[in-house]
Design goal:
It is a single chain. The protein is built from 27 helices and nine strands. The protein is an alpha+beta fold. Among the domains are: 142 residues, Up-down Bundle (Glutathione S-transferase Yfyf (Class Pi), Chain A, domain 2), CATH 1.20.1050; 71 residues, no CATH class; 255 residues, Orthogonal Bundle (Neurolysin, domain 3), CATH 1.10.1370. The strands form three sheets. A five-stranded mixed sheet has the order 3-4-5-9-6, with helices on both faces. Strands 1-2 form a two-stranded antiparallel ribbon. The protein is globular and about 80 Å long. It starts with a helix and ends in a 6-residue tail after the last helix.
Length: 696
């Protein structure tokens, strides 16, 4: 393929033509060019300035990010032996380049000297870029002795390899495990599959046909797993799929220890503790928080325990209600974790006269997208339009759609929507950057956001219908995308979400979620499958009344994850001296301590969720999972300003939110952006109110 095509600043990148061999060659080229750029700057005897130092580094960095990001994106959405091979082959090569760059003592001194000559007052964006670079140099060991630098570099390379291994193991373990319900030719699945939604049965029958099985094949993919746990009347089936899901990537998984992440977790933690100590920190949590809003691990633990103290009585009350209701309708003597979602759904239907699967009939994806785009236009004044050019030949999957964001008559960015679950795609929902906004001499490069979800595959040519939870997920990820695309910052390093503290990154996404619960928005995004009518006021009242159903249990679950994360990165001092099995055992001990203190639902010992906790072992959330709750305080506080306002007032507030938060990217501290919009410090009151955790 043409190099110019993929690195084009205006046209859309061609993923279809990007072969593993192309990726391999482009990585080699860009890394080689990067080393030459650094060498030239370091050998320059003349006084360095912004144009001769930062600009060339930014330009080559953007190319490296672009091609390495493309490789990792394809690995996430279209995994194959070939793409894995390219990534594993080049992991050390790319890691070595960035570590060498960040540990370059000469370059570090050049940036320190540059910052002295650039005023924070007259050039605030350039000053912020330089401050971030200098901080990152120091966090990579630029001021360490040579031996310590070498150890740090070796550990960094190994950590990147282990993160990739964790990801591959989880994907492979999830794919390896299925449940087969085999039927005789004339047998009908009346009892064993009772309650499972029709679309799940159709997808599972289709999967069975692919495998030459007479009956159904249920995978552990979220669009299959979640409805079975929530709706299947067959308790043994719920237990079976719950066990298989909970044991993924462990030594007790269905496939045995083939894709076990236990020792991978131990090795990752040992290396993280080593890295922290090389840099002079007590633990990885301290190191992680140097780039976040929170001040210390103790502050994070205190924050989480304060939330837990508030939420736990609500969670216990909700569990008591589930157990009481279960005794009335089901012959279940003791409610187990694989019963909770099923009984909860029945209780919600009984209490609010609402059924999540029936509600799905109101949310065809095409209508949801149109309503989402209209909501965004009303709030932020930008249009989201389907790209009219033929994009089928440039995409990695035929179902991917391309949309452009237009503001003031100009295209300000693009969305690539990959919304459906596939076997070769990792689970969850996320936004990735394909291309960032950067101002060059010949114009501004338009950013591109890659938006990924795991909704059920369409059946034939029918529209896909979403649950309301999936609608909220769509709004969430779109909020991330807007943060990336509506930036007005011209520098790569602080454009969009780049340079934003990790515990503030979720602010725009969680903020936009709130609008999926408003009556006006629901009118825009709904159209019943049979009647064609939108959700009426009566139905809305039911949906809104059920909004905070089990919010205490949900809050406690998130706190459990977050507290476990911060503690394993804070309280395992000396783990680097222990063998892997001993470290993993200590990880499970911390998990058990957290569960006893925080959780109200007793989990069986076989629920080994750390082995699939990709957020912290193969993502950016190590010692940072608390960010979801931290950002929820910020986002709820911001959204509270919109409540009760008319359309015109919301538009004015939306413009202010765009100006002070979305457009600023990482050009200033997140707390400064928050203060600029709110006029004060954050308060948690709105979050507790929105979650219904105010009074028992």
């Amino acid at each position: 393929m043409s190099r110019d095509t993929f690195f084009c600043k205006e046209c859309l990148p061609n993923y279809r033509l990007l072969t593993p061999n192309d990726i391999d060659e482009l990585i080699a080229e860009t890394i080689s060019d990067g080393r030459l750029v650094v060498k030239k700057i370091c050998e320059n005897d003349q006084a360095c300035n912004w144009e001769t130092t930062v600009q060339p580094i930014s330009q080559i960095s953007e190319k490296i990010y672009r091609i390495w990001g493309a490789a990792n994106h394809l690995s996430s959405v279209a995994d194959s032996t070939e793409i894995r091979g390219v990534i594993n082959k080049n992991l050390e090569y790319v890691s070595s380049f960035w570590t060498d760059f960040s540990q370059n003592k000469r370059l570090y001194k050049i940036f320190v000297n540059l910052r002295r000559g650039i005023s924070k007052t007259t050039h605030p964006h350039q000053h912020k870029v330089l401050c971030d670079y200098i901080r990152d140099f120091e966090l990579a060991g630029a001021d360490l002795e040579n031996d310590a630098q070498l150890d740090f570099k070796k550990n960094t390379i190994e950590l990147n390899k282990l993160a990739q291994k964790f990801s591959e193991n989880l994907l492979d373990s999830t794919k390896a495990t299925v449940i087969k319900v085999v039927l005789n030719k004339d047998e009908k699945p009346i009892k064993s599959l009772e309650g499972i939604p029709t679309h799940v049965l159709e997808l599972s029958k289709k999967e069975a046909k692919k495998r030459n099985v007479e009956g159904y094949v249920f995978s552990l993919q979220p669009p299959i797993y979640s409805p079975i746990i929530e709706y299947s009347s067959n308790r043994s089936l719920r237990f079976d799929i719950f066990c298989k899901y909970a044991r993924r990537s462990s030594d007790i998984a269905e496939e045995g220890a083939l894709f076990d992440n236990s020792c991978v977790i131990a090795k990752i933690l040992k290396l993280r503790y080593q890295q922290a100590k090389i840099l002079g920190f007590s633990n990885p949590a301290e190191l992680s928080l140097t780039t976040k809003m929170a001040n210390s691990p103790e502050d994070v633990v205190g924050f989480l325990k304060e939330l837990a103290a508030k939420a736990k009585p609500f969670a216990q009350k909700e569990l008591d209600e589930i157990e009481k209701y279960s005794s009335q309708i089901e012959s279940i003597r003791k409610v187990e974790p694989w019963d909770i979602a099923f009984i909860s759904e029945k209780l919600k239907k009984s209490r609010f006269s609402i059924d999540s699967e029936e509600l799905r009939n109101y949310f065809p994806l095409s209508k949801v997208l149109l309503g989402l785009f209209e909501t965004v236009k009303d709030l932020f004044g930008c249009e989201v339009l389907k790209e009219q050019k033929n994009t089928a030949d440039i995409l990695w999957e035929q179902s991917v759609q391309v949309f452009k964001v237009v503001g003031e008559g100009k295209v300000t960015g693009y969305f690539f929507f990959d919304l459906f679950s596939r076997e070769e795609k990792r689970g969850g929902a996320w936004m990735d950057e394909c291309r960032s906004r950067v101002k060059y001499d010949n114009g501004v490069q338009t950013p591109i956001a890659l938006m990924n979800c795991n909704f059920s595959q369409p059946i034939g040519h029918e529209d896909v219908y979403l649950t309301h939870d999936e609608v909220v997920t769509l709004f969430h990820e779109f909020g991330h995308g807007l943060h990336h695309l509506l930036t007005e910052v011209d520098y790569l390093e602080i454009s969009g979400i780049s340079g934003v503290e990790w515990d503030a990154v979720e602010l725009p996404s969680q903020f936009l979620e709130n609008f999926a619960w408003e009556y006006e928005t629901l009118q825009k995004i709904s159209k019943h499958r049979d009647t064609g009518l939108p959700i009426n006021r009566e139905m809305f009242e039911k949906i809104y009344a059920a909004k905070n159903f089990n919010s205490g249990l949900q809050m406690i679950r998130q706190i459990e994850f977050a507290l476990f994360d911060i503690l394993i990165h804070k309280d395992l001092d000396g783990c680097e001296l222990l063998d892997d099995n001993h470290v993993y055992k200590k990880v499970l001990e911390i998990l058990e301590i957290v569960r006893k203190e925080i959780s109200v639902i007793k989990q069986p010992s076989f629920v080994l969720f750390p082995n699939s906790f990709s957020h912290i072992f193969d993502g950016g959330y190590a010692a940072g999972y608390y960010s979801y709750k931290w950002a929820e305080v910020l986002s709820s506080d911001c959204y509270a300003r919109f409540e009760g306002k008319n359309d015109r007032e919301k538009s004015i507030l939306g413009d202010s939110f765009k100006k002070e938060i979305l457009s600023k990217g990482g050009s200033r501290e997140a707390i400064a952006s928050f203060r600029a919009f709110m006029g004060r410090e954050p308060k948690p009151d709105a979050m507790f109110k929105h979650l219904g955790l105010v009074s028992l």
